[in-house]
Structure to design on (417 residues):
């Protein structure tokens, strides 16, 4: 530890800078000065002088060492707090949901402040006062219930004034520190920490809490934006899928059923979350290009070619959906190269497209649409097995048949919109 190294260095400096010269002085006095003195009082005075110098040096060293130890201990605590803040800032930055950021911010506040409880309060436009939005610490709920009036009062004061606030009880049994979220973040709220039993917050702890409040507000804004994005995409996708269903007039719920099969198949294949998310949205939107085609037009190979290209072009214009475009473009490729639009072969076809192609076919065979009699699941699975290696990726067919054997594939009425 840093403090241990400094302590050892101080002893070495004391030994070389004080003990060695003083010992040398004592030897010189003893050998060369004392024999020349014939006055007993002068001898005693000289010895006392040397001893006094030694005692003063030792006293000064001990006092200096104590100051150094206190300073180093404070530096160690600051370093620990800074490392904690850096660690938490990384975690908060990577936290995707607002609720998770609120939880992480209070846990970090309690840890960094070494406090028994920490809370975060947020004030919406319609709220009269900041409302408790997250807490951490074993006794957080109990402490808040017992001190709700005092805590709410100091939090409101801090949020309204935009300044940190601290309060301690006169018996030192309880201390609370509150820092507001920075006004520039556009959020109104505060982080509070409470200590009990010989409780005290020093100014450095308050500074650390202010830094944490800044980090938490940035993370909250980012998570809120991500939540808004997710909400937007999920609802816009719903609207597009509904529009597609009503445009085609048949095949209602096709996109949702394909997404359901594809999600199960993706999980069976243990695909990562990002791939599963791409598969989900691309399944829902795979036939979106049909919106650009005349619904009365007969579905020929040329028309089908077009819906892949048109759909991929439509989706590629949405920046956050751009990675879905190639998946949609290739969802009618065959594993043996006899598909369209590009006639890609095997694993050159994106995995997500191969998954959707298989699930699309299963639903087309089994759903009650207007142009063919639906097959029972067993018959559809048989057809799937026959087309393994030609139309479909054999590994995916295998995994899908496993799912069906485990009873995880159900065909039925389209899900409700
Ligand atoms: Fe299609």
């Amino acid at each position: 530890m840093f403090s241990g190294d400094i302590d050892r260095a101080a002893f070495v400096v004391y030994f070389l800078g004080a003990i060695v010269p003083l010992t040398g002085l004592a030897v010189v006095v003893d050998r060369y000065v004392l024999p020349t003195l014939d006055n007993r009082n002068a001898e005693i005075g000289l010895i006392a002088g040397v001893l006094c110098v030694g005692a003063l040096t030792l006293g000064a060293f001990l006092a200096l060492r104590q100051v150094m130890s206190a300073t180093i201990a404070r530096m160690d605590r600051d370093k620990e707090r800074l490392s904690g803040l850096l660690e938490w800032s990384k975690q908060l930055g990577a936290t995707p949901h607002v609720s998770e950021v609120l939880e992480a911010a209070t846990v970090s506040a309690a840890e960094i402040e070494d406090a028994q409880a920490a809370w975060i309060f947020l004030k919406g436009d319609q709220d009269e006062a900041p409302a408790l939005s997250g807490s951490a610490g074993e006794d957080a709920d109990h402490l808040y219930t017992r001190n709700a009036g005092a805590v709410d009062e100091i939090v409101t004061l801090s949020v309204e004034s935009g300044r940190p606030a601290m309060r301690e009880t006169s018996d030192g049994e309880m201390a609370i520190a509150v820092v507001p979220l920075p006004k520039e973040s556009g959020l109104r709220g505060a982080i509070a920490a409470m200590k009990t039993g010989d409780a005290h917050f020093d100014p450095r702890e308050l500074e650390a809490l202010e830094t944490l409040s800044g980090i938490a507000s940035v993370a909250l804004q980012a998570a809120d934006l991500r939540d808004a994005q997710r909400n937007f995409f999920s609802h816009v996708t719903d609207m597009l899928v509904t529009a597609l269903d009503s445009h085609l007039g048949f095949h209602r719920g096709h996109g949702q059923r394909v997404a359901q099969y594809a999600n199960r198949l993706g999980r069976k294949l243990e695909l990562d979350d990002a791939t599963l998310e791409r598969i989900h949205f691309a399944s829902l939107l795979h036939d979106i290009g049909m919106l650009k085609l005349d619904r009365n037009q007969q579905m020929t190979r040329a028309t089908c070619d077009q819906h892949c290209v048109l759909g991929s072009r439509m989706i590629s214009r949405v920046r956050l959906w751009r990675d879905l475009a190639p998946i949609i473009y290739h969802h009618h490729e065959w594993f043996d190269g006899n598909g369209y639009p590009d006639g890609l072969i095997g694993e050159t076809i994106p995995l997500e497209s191969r998954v959707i192609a298989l699930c699309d076919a299963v639903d087309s065979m089994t759903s009650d649409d207007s142009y063919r009699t639906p097959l029972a699941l067993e018959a559809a699975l048989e057809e799937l097995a026959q087309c393994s290696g030609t139309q479909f990726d054999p590994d995916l067919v295998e995994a899908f048949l496993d799912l069906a054997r485990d009873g995880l594939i159900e065909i039925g009425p389209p899900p409700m919109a």
Observations:
- The chain has three domains: 2-90, 98-215, 249-405.
- Residues 286-287, 307, 331-332 surround fe (ii) ion (CB under 6 Å).
- The chain has twelve helices and five strands.
- The longest strand covers residues 189-196.
